[in-house]
Design brief:
By secondary structure, the protein is α+β, with helices and mostly antiparallel strands. It is built from five helices and 16 strands. The longest helix is centred in the middle third of the chain and has 23 residues, at 128-150.
Length: 269
């Protein structure tokens, strides 16, 4: 087994255990229920979508977003989450750096083995139990914050079921095809459901709705997923109309290891 395949497989297993719902409001950085699930699959770990119409839509989406090859080629990406946290992800190596100015914390985490180090309140954490707790928290933060940016690339993750629901209109009256995402034997909240609205004009997700229970008829929240920009050949949505989620997205071909193992400042902008 190649090193790359081993890393990616471990990464997939580690991420797909969490389907929690967290929303961080930029005004107070208070965590509330919202959306979270993320994993990084090589193409040979993707699952087949059984609903043929849904599969065709997802295939069209992937093409519109740049294609799986471009997604697989992504090396490093940084972004801001709700204006409150700053992340830089080593996608292929499974490392993440999270800067949280509110509590002057910096997390440097290997997502494959939950090793790393943390500064909190300006002091490095040395107590093993506290460090383990904070590294787990960092991974949960990453899972949540990355899903707000990369969800359209995750529809074939193991344990995710994607089904065509209906033709509908989004807020603003634009025609869309609606897909439902449900989950089986993954995460801490497998009863959640999401509906994603695929714009019929350009095959891009432009809206998503969250249901706490899969049998709910009305979603408690609906968010835009708009303002796509091209980054090294892939389309990512940020700087959204409602000012929620990710912003300041940057991608990099190379970054030094010091970004992920040194507390020295990283230039996110």
């Amino acid at each position: 087994m190649s090193t790359k395949f081993r890393i990616m497989t471990q990464f997939l297993k580690s991420i797909s255990i969490s389907l929690s719902l967290l929303l961080v409001l930029c005004t107070g950085c208070k965590e509330k229920e919202a959306v979270s699930e993320s994993s990084d699959n090589p193409s040979n770990n993707k699952t087949e979508i059984q609903d043929k119409k849904a599969a065709q839509l997802v295939s069209s989406m992937m093409t519109a977003m740049g294609g799986e090859d471009k997604w697989d080629d992504l090396n490093y990406v940084s972004w801001t989450f709700f204006g409150a946290r700053y992340l830089v992800w080593d996608k292929k190596g499974g490392r993440v750096r999270i800067d949280s100015p509110k509590d002057t914390s910096i997390y440097l985490v290997d997502l494959n083995n939950l090793e790393g180090k943390v500064i909190k309140g300006g002091e490095e954490v040395t107590d093993p139990a506290e460090l383990t707790k904070l590294l787990k928290r960092a991974k949960s933060i990453w899972i949540n914050d990355s899903y707000w940016l990369f969800m359209p690339f995750k529809l074939q993750d193991p344990g995710v079921s994607v089904n065509y629901m209906r033709e509908d209109t989004m807020i603003g009256g634009v025609a869309a095809s609606v897909l439902a995402l449900t989950f089986k034997d993954v995460g801490n909240t497998p009863d959640n459901k999401y509906e994603v609205y695929v714009d019929k004009n350009d095959n891009l997700i432009k809206q998503w709705a969250f249901f706490k229970e899969a049998n709910q008829d009305t979603p408690p929240r609906i968010w835009p997923w708009d303002n796509y920009q091209t980054h090294n050949g892939i389309m990512l949505s940020s700087e959204r109309a409602d000012k929620s989620g990710p912003s300041n997205v940057r991608v990099y071909e190379t970054l030094g290891d010091e970004v992920f193992n040194s507390f020295d400042a990283f230039d996110y902008f």
